[in-house]
Amino acid sequence: MNTQILKVPLTGDPSSDSALGHWASPNDLTTWIVPSTSPSPVLDPLRTAATHLRTTSTPVAFPTETVYGLGADATRSSTVRGIYAAKGRPSDNPLIVHISDLSMLRRLLPSSPSSPNSNTDPIPAIYHPLIARFWPGPLTILLPLPDPSPLAPEVTASLPTFGVRMPASALARTLISLTGAPLAAPSANASTRPSPTTASHVYDDLSGRIELVIDGGSCAVGVESTVVDGLCSPPAVLRPGGVSIEEIRGCEGWEGVERGYVDAAQEGREAPRAPGMKYKHYSPRARVVLFERGEGRKGWGGGG
After folding, report:
1. Which residues are in the YrdC-like domain (predicted)?
2. Residue 78 annotated as binding?
């Protein structure tokens, strides 16, 4: 297929560009508002991409603050299967769900079983300190999968939980909002290749496999999100990323968080608890040479 790059002409920081949207209330992540201005050189490429996400089964590559993601409507199986096909990704490797605001997240979660109309927050209290400090941002939390679930089963790879985050990128949140659905979005690279941080990286890797790449400039963080599990005791970091374990330990209830990403899942003996735990990542097309200090070799120079 023909791969097209849609340039979003941002004038400032894509995490705060007011042309992309704003919060309904300051310091409140409940509702992300997208301007209704039409036409708009900033919003029109995102509207085109959102229409594509709603009406086709081919994923769209888009920038976040971490890396470029390969997004598809997380509620439709056909679109999620398109991610696995484009990346060549194993289907037992779960995907992270991206949301535009907390209202969208709460629609994915069950109401209180004792009172469906209660005001109890369906987001577990253990995550409230992390959300307050790190969202929007490069942190993914694990939540129990409701039954029935609005998410396509291909998102979770048969796990009883799903990973979700709110990107710091206003461009990403606006695309999600315009689509009207959460986006399942792993990194926009072929499976095992280095994660892309520019639109040209995506094009080099996935040209001919997808139809649209949104060019919103370079990603600020450059590594994937940290994945945490607060449903176990003690809580665990399942994948290192853009938020350090030391920062997480500074939050109430997370002082004793442990590293959980050295486990049997990495050795292929069981299903991974989160994305990025089972299969190898970051295999560049280049010769890699390991130098050990003090082990100089003829023709290679000294160690150091």
Report:
1. 43-243
2. no
